[in-house]
Amino acid sequence: MSLMHKSFTIDEHYINSLPFPAIVIKQNGQATISGKHAEELFGFSVTDITGHTTPSIHENLLRNLSSETFQAILHNTESTYIDKVQVYTHSEEEISSALLAKPFIEQGEHLILIMFMLPELMINSVSNSSTYVDLKQGLDSTFMTVTLDRDGFILECNAEFLKISQWTPKRVIGKTFWQLFPENEASEKITNTIWRNLNNGHTWQGEIEKVTKTGQSYWVLLTAIPTFNLEANEHQFILIEKDITKSKTIQHQLEKIAYIDTETGLMNAHRLEKVITKMIEEEKHFSFVYLSIDKFYTLKELHDQQINQSLIIEFTNRIKMYFQDSTMARINENDFVVITPLSEWFIQGFLSYLQQHPIYSSNIAVPISISGGITRYPEDQTTFSQLMKASIATITNVREAGGDKIVSLSKATHKALNRKALIEKRLLQALDQKNLKVLYQPQVDIYSGKITAVEALVRWEDEVIGVVSPDELIPIAEETGLINNIGSFMIEKACEQALIWKKAGHNLKVAINSSVREFRDKNMAKSILDMLAKTNCPANLIQIEITEKFALEAEAATSITQQMRKLENEGIAFVLDDFGTGYGSFRYMQILPIETLKIDKTFTSSLLKSEKTQKLMHGMVQLGKSMELKVVAEGVETAEQADLLITYGCDAIQGFYISKPVTPDEIESLLIK
């Protein structure tokens, strides 16, 4: 595969890791990087062959090469292999070598990696390769092994891995490194660390949780090693794993046995969950009181280590004294839970008790502030998980209001949490039964006055919950991991509908909203292209709308950018949605394949009320035009707004002034009008 379509960072460390002498040159023939093997063999120092004033390598190292051949090396977009060339050293000695030139792009610049494949090094490499095969055979009989390519795709694995992971070769080959691990924040963090180490040429070792094909958890001691495959002439990564699930399970069991917080003597969260579960089974009524010390880490910085330890002990003593005959637990360093039948007014009196019985450090009272939440069982919430979530939501509200209060779960929060829990439960059923539907909001081109595009919007009307808006549905779907399921559903419906309209003579572009979580999946672009092929929908009829938050992450994640480029190359356009409301960055507008800006409706709604908004919106339109982007204003509700936007130079408008989101049949009626 040519490197010309990929962007790499090839530095001195990479050059020195190659088994052959190597240098990197520009298209003018000047060297930019020289490996230590090349310097030792040819006798040239770095300064001898690099720099603006030095001759090209055609004038020293490769002066026996014809100009035509050298120019072909400089301008080829594919690798060039020359079986035999004469290379001149600094001392004018001639060395016979094979030459491999591989073009690549780094930060937009066309460069060429040249490797001198000397016969004696080829022999050593074959010998080393034989040693490697023997070593690998030994490892295969004892450990699980997986081989990855430079992009993290699985190339091969051994029988031991297939046995433990329950994969078959047909199903696992082509999967990615990341798909072998659980989909959670902790796993994502550690796998990114492993991948970063491998790409920096470093080995990584440690205990890590993995998942089988069926999603079952197992643990391995993993050693991840960067290697170089001579036959493929590319870097690869080897994963060597030892199954430690049994010992890890015993360890977890021992940890759960230790239900006591050693510092305070209170029960810990594991024990608390069991106690709460039993109380719920026995249908006992109680208040779940969550107490959190405000600005705890600031207090730790202000006082020495001795007070850090005694602060928690003294605080625990005050809880025990005030909430006598109640069940107590320490959740983490500065959070506590009290299970009590006591009344709300008494619980709130704990703040006054703390003021009357302060904790001292060097004869000075430590200013402790407490944020607390009271959630009742069964009136407010009915499971341990719900009680914890409700408490954290209450604490967050208290802290946002300044802290130092203990309050009950508000009716609004209580209602919102119950609805959220119900939505999570019903959404799984809705996806299974395909109860979601898609509406389309038209977009009118200013110049032609015609509907040229529609935005596909998911709608869900549940028989139990009622109507669930996208603003409510999408965050919950992202949190639960169901956003990928909704995304797949939307892509399929959009492709099917775009094709129906095309066959009816309407070339309507259909825009779908996509989450950055979906594009973290290395196979997202492939899934979209597979759906286009399955439905026979032309790629140029599909647009993908991304937010500024998405764009910010994509800017830093090469894998996401590459997927976007792949889709762009097939004809799919990207739209930057809600422009102006997120993290503004001119950089990602340069890097990412964005074709259209959609100015958020919050600006449009206040357009006629504020002169500042008018100037701001005019500026945003001009910014888009200056970057040769199409500019769309959404949220247009009146003719006055539309007229003003037209004078600013908007290319298209979308909003209730044109139409609310409607069914495909209603879109066809609008097209006829």
Quick synopsis:
Residues 420-673 form the EAL domain. Residues 204-256 form the PAC domain. With 673 residues, the chain is α/β, with parallel strands linked by helices.
What name does the CATH topology of the largest domain carry?
TIM Barrel
**What is the number of beta strands?**
27
Structural class: alpha/beta
**Bulk shape:** globular
Helix content: 40-55%
Q: What is the second-level CATH architecture of the largest domain?
A: Alpha-Beta Barrel
Pfam family, one: PAS_9
Protein name: EAL domain-containing protein
InterPro entries: Biofilm_reg_signaling (IPR052155), EAL_dom (IPR001633), EAL_sf (IPR035919), GGDEF_dom (IPR000160), Nucleotide_cyclase (IPR029787), PAS (IPR000014), PAS-assoc_C (IPR000700), PAS-like_dom_sf (IPR035965)
